[in-house]
Amino acid sequence: MIKAEWFFWLVGAVFLLKAAQMTVDRTNPKRFGTAAFWGLLGVCFFYSTWVNEKKLPAEPLGVAVLVLICIGGFNFTGKGKPDTTSEDERVRLATRFGNKLFIPALTIPVVAMLCAVLASKVEFGSTPVLEEGSETILGLGLGAIVALGVGMWVLRERRVSVPLHAGRGLLESMGWALLLPQLLAVLGAIFQAAGVGTQVRKIVESVLPDGQKLAAVALYCAGMFVFTLVMGNAFAAFPVMTAAVGWPVLVEQMNGNAPAILAVGMLAGFCGTMCTPMAANFNLVPAALLELKDQYGPIKAQAPTAVALLGCNIAIIYFFAF
Amino acid sequence: MIVLLGVLVVILGFAMRRNPLLVVGVAGIVTGLLGKLSPVEILRTFGESFASSRSVTIFAITLPVIGLLERNGLQQQARTLIGKLGTKMTTGRFLTLYLLLRQLTAAVGLQTIGGPAQSVRPMVAPMAEAAAERQGGGRPLPDKLREKVRSYAAGTDNVGLFFGEDCFLAIGSILLITGLVNSTYHTHLEPLHLALWAIPSAVCAFLVHGGRLLRLDRKLERELVTASAEMSVARTDAQEGEATK
């Protein structure tokens, strides 16, 4: 049986390998900080396995997470000059390979889907091939590996070091932002442990008339929208609103369909992203790139769509999630 | 009640544009302390929830193959492909088609082939403008309309990305939902189910924004007529001015 933990080890090993590459990359002015960040992250991916099995204490991992936060948060990471192709070379390569370039990219979702849908039915002896409950994650991992093989074959690339270097370039340019979603998930768990959810639920219950489904759904979606407007980031709004309304009221109290409520709730937050200058990379950066005089031009073009879609999302949850 | 100050830390931190990692770290520690957790318990919660939410970060495993494709011209090929669609189209229809393509490619995990720098500035905005100029009989667009067309090009890229990417099961937001909910509420949600539930909203987004883009065509037409009328009035004024001089 292929286990999910093996795959987490693979990801951890990739991080460690990249950290080793980063230490010797002299084009990166902050190479040691960068290498420390990804190396420590890689170690955490291994150590976590035994924390999950309760064989090792979780506290050292907590310390490591805080160290990661400090390395990333105080800007000790940087990026080197990746050894890659120039724009002209890429145009030439694109004409040479043509639409074949899309085949490896499409392999990832196809394999992931196949694993998610079929793998639970394939058994080896009497145990399923993929660990139960982790088919999607393992599918993604297998998809990425198969796609890499397909890609190297399609592009006639024999050196494994080439994709590894290219991947490191992307990793360095995303930087610590890559870790942010996971840390927000951690924050959500702390909110829960500290009782934020219960507190907000008390407030919500005193405000919401009992059993008012439409009001509760609207409150959840509008809350996602408003929090995202203020924070500029739906990911940050999600743990707060889900602890307050989404999980306790809509899922537990009203027996809603959790995947539907949470997925659509996140999208209600995305409607907020389209209306706020706080989401600078989506709204202000394009205005600058396109040399617009009105830096709010993109927001004005998006806002009516965003508001209409907020209504759609409320309706989708209300009609289909219960 | 006092634990809610932790939420306030998050809001203030993000609103004041502090480094998000630090905001999360400080908010976590503050909330834990206010919620009467001991420092050791806080560390344990950090550790345990990190261990059970690793699935959020695993999309990093796709970076080598994406990097390999990009250095071999993936984005350039995507540009060529869109370029072939551009001729003989109105602004609204062209942007609607781009919206559909952006949604579909994002839904299969190709979020990075579009974006303000990758596709809007080099391709989509110039082609949308060119279409509007064709509509106006080949004259250069008045500044106000040029701004509007460019804004719609940028907006369309965002709508397509936001309401396409969540249909892909390995995107950060979907993995955040499963990671958060599975580690916080000890249940088991499958990313695939969440991704499927993003489809109805994606369809709505296409209908709503596509409809607005097609209406943009009519608005452009009207404003181009007034603009050209103003221009010809200005021209005759100028000519009359010449004559009476």
TrEMBL record, chain A:
Q: Specify the domain of life of the species encoding this protein.
A: Bacteria
Residue ranges crossing the lipid bilayer per the database entry: 32-51, 58-76, 101-124, 136-155, 175-196, 217-238, 258-280, 301-321
A Pfam match is: DUF979
Keywords (alphabetical) are:
Membrane, Transmembrane, Transmembrane helix
Give the protein's recorded name: Membrane protein
Naturally occurring in which organism (per UniProt): Streptomyces cacaoi
Automatic annotation (TrEMBL), chain B:
The record's keywords, sorted A to Z, are: Membrane, Transmembrane, Transmembrane helix
Which parts pass through the membrane? 49-69, 159-182, 194-214
Classification via Pfam families:
DUF969
Protein name (Swiss-Prot/TrEMBL): Membrane protein
User: Which species is this record about?
Assistant: Streptomyces cacaoi
Q: What is the lineage of its organism?
A: Bacteria, Bacillati, Actinomycetota, Actinomycetes, Kitasatosporales
